[in-house]
Amino acid sequence: MIYRKWRNPIMKKKILTLAIIIIALLFIIIIKPADKGKPYSTYFANLNAELKNNGPGRPVIIVDLDNLDKNLAIVKKQLHPSMKFRLTVKSIPCPWLIDYILTTMNSKYVMVFHGPDITYCANNSKDYDILLGKPMPINAVKEFYNSLKPGIHFNPEKQIQWLVDTPARLKQYYDFAKQKNISMKMSIEIDVGLHRGGVKTVEELDQMLGFIQKNSGNLTFAGFMGYDVHSASAISIIGSKKKAIQNAFEDSMARYMTFYNYGKQKYHGLFKGELTFNSGGSHTYMLFDGKSPVNDIAMGSALLKPSDFDKPLLSELVEALFVATPVLKRLEGTTIPFIEGISNLMAKWNPNRQVTYFIYGGGWRAHYYSPEGLIENTIYGFSTNQAIVNGSRATALHVDDYIFLLPTQSEAIMREFGDILMIRHGKIVGRYPALPQ
């Protein structure tokens, strides 16, 4: 009976039409965007209330000191006792925070990457031990010495380790030191697998160590810097990601050991006293076990955990850095110039475009974080003045509420707002300037 009905052309057409409709409906259900909107969590609801009551009414960058303290305690526990903790100033570009973190970690060691930051550290602290994080052009070195304030207690000959990556750079520094009749501490950058410059062979190292030894009146050997951040991005083809990272890390340390052993055996006179053998960073600090020559770990970003540092090795750490910006305008739907007639179809199709929020500022290197489900409207256009953000009605925002973003990194964005708000127990407890750009 069913077979006969199926052979009936009219019935066959009806069944096929019904099947097509069902498939089309299923397809629409599958591809139609789901409502991702959620209201504030309790944490951000409280922070929103605090900013509305006591904030400056403009975009701000916030450090949660409670979360920072949690991260500092975790790093203290994970960092091998043989390692010196060195704070990367570029990642925490705020003098008050730098001092707070160094005091908590019982450290005086900083890594600096920017000429004006070197000058600030030298002119405003008598006890910092500075290691350069990248080789500086010779004109930046000259600018630093010309910018030192008279009468400061900082001694560059003892407290700064300048980073050199090539024999040519080393010769530049020597010529400058000889001309000024000063001594400069030289840390040699070695390539341990990142391939971002630095000494690649023991022959290059031999040339540089020999030059330092020959010109010991103006140059002092201070140690090595071998950055191993690539280890944390090791690709796992067979086996676990964790094992791949460990293997890459061990390969890096084997390279480090090769340079160290060569230098110590041939130039044992230089390898005396308190030398700095730096490596590591926010991605790999917990892997060091005291078995390699490394005795100095520079890190910073992981303490605030921006989104680029949401990695398995850093899973114990918590986010401590946020951007907050007020909602200036709230509009129903999404209306785009020149296509007003069909604009409302966007909201009907995608519930996450039910509401439009124009915010104060925009264009930061950050992801919308709270309330959940907010998306930038790329059709309307990019703006650093009044960015347009869409969300479903479930986001439940009103004019003057704050939208919270999670930065991707800490270093550049923390300098963009002038000052940094410190939060403790959900309340503003301080406002401190960032280092200038």
Short description:
By secondary structure, this protein is of the alpha/beta class.
CATH architecture of the largest domain: Alpha-Beta Barrel
* The named CATH superfamily of the largest domain: Alanine racemase
* The number of domains: 2
Order of helical and strand elements: HHHEHEHEHEHHEHEHEHEEEHEEEEEEE
Rg calc = 28 Å
Report the helical percentage. 25-40%
Q: What number is the mean pLDDT?
A: 93
Distance between the termini: 82 Å
Assigned CATH class of the largest domain: Alpha Beta
Class computed from helices, strands and strand pairing = alpha/beta
Largest sheet, described in full? 9 strands, mixed
Counted by DSSP, the helix tally is 12
**CATH topology of the largest domain, which one?**
TIM Barrel
Shape: globular
- The overall strand count is 17
Q: Can you walk through the features of this model?
A:
The protein is of the alpha/beta class. It folds into two domains: 42-59 and 319-433, Lyase, Ornithine Decarboxylase, Chain A, domain 1; 113-294, Alpha-Beta Barrel (TIM Barrel), CATH 3.20.20.10. 35% of the residues lie in helices and 21% in strands. The longest helix is centred in the middle third of the chain and has 26 residues, at 241-266. The protein starts with a helix and ends with a strand. 38% of the residues are buried. The mean pLDDT is 93.
Keywords:
437 residues; eight-stranded parallel barrel; Lyase, Ornithine Decarboxylase, Chain A, domain 1; alpha/beta; TIM Barrel; 35% helix; 12 helices; 2 domains; nine-stranded mixed beta sheet
